[in-house]
User: Fold these one by one.
Assistant:
Number 1:
Amino acid sequence: METELILAISAIVVLLAISAFFSGAETSMTASSKPRMHTLEQSGDKKAQIVNKLWSAKEHLIGSILLGNNLVNILASALATSVFLKLFGETGVIYATLTMTALVLVFAEVLPKTYALRHSDKAALASAPILRPIVFIFGPVALAVESIVKVILAIFTRSDTADEMNEFAEEELRGAIDLHEGEGEEVRHEREMLRSILDLDDVEVDEIMTHRQDVNSSDIDQSPAQVIEDVLSSSYTRIPLWQDKPDNIVGVLHAKALLRAIRAHDGELDRETLISIASKPWFIPESTSLLAQLHAFRDRHAHFAIVVDEYGEMQGIVTLEDILEEIVGDITDEHDIDIEGVQTVTDNEFIINGTVTIRDLNRQFEWRLPDDEAATLAGLILHEARQIPKVGQAFVFHDMRFEILDRKRHQITSIRVSPIHE
């Protein structure tokens, strides 16, 4: 009798240990860092390779773990009930239930899962070689259970579309970026860059282009000397050439090509030579996304495009540098013109030009101003106010206070912006 009791108790202890392994393995496999496991596999780690292979069929993996965990828990409970019935009679069922609930909860659930959460990568690497044969053994049963579950889910739920899956993946990435810890300037800049990369497909070129009224261009019908002077006085290496009217772009002149032509012709250039060395203008619709345009720049080995609206009218220009600046921030060199757009009054007060884009403000100050309906700060105020505000008027929306400081005709040119902190 005593021997049977000792064997039964020993079996219960072993089964609880196995249950703890299954619980910890399940938690570690789901909580482990997939990017880190991928990196370890690329570096030749065999255990990481097993982890990734098991996770590639996660429904199969989870089904096998749960099957094994339930088997050992039920068996341990049955043995405990048998032992307590022999010791205490019919009331042993109550004692067995209370005892096994406490043991399973503490030693087979909370304890292993807490450890696995704190050391998920380490626990996943340690448990993967043991899980592989278990998944193979329980595979057929787990597959049958998985099939039943899929049939039930198909009846009562609908499958996610490819767009929904892509949106979910993007939201997951954005959440991971926002959770990127640290408040230093370098960490903040990293978050800005990662967010900007995800936004490339949602932003159109007309939101970042240089508007036609700010484009440095040159009239091809004027004297070649004046065209050369326009190129030399510009801070840009590519100058659009127009004919008859500034919107009629007939070519794009590169400063380096102009210098080669000047040397080849001993400084004597004519209009035909300027036209021949100018590249053919590349026109793109204003609704083109930055991601599509970035790929187009790469495929065409080009850096410069003319943005047109639906009627074919020129709206502005966009360059490869413009798109790169959306990712890494402003790129300046010794020839760039410093344009003041944001003036810091205090840590909580700024004077901002109306033409400054909302994306730049969100990136610089980590604000959350919406840019769906308007690209610039002035456009956002017009959209929210539903009127053309007067100088001195103030508005509060999106947890920010906006005071109109200056206006030229119907264009808001200067705004005092103050974030409202609760």
Note: DSSP finds 15 helices and twelve strands in the chain.
Number 2:
Amino acid sequence: MRYRLGSFLLLIYILVGLYVAWVHHYLTPTLLRQIAQALLAIFLWFLILLGVDLHIGG
């Protein structure tokens, strides 16, 4: 039970931090798109080698 409470508090802490960063313009849609593209490229690297374009949007 103690582990679950600690995990829940950590999740709340991270979500509040994300909100504050978004409101103060440290996170932008462009930055989030670039991070998503980078994560796709890291986890789906074999598709890139097959010629798949993992760019999000235009």
Note: The chain has a mean pLDDT of 91.
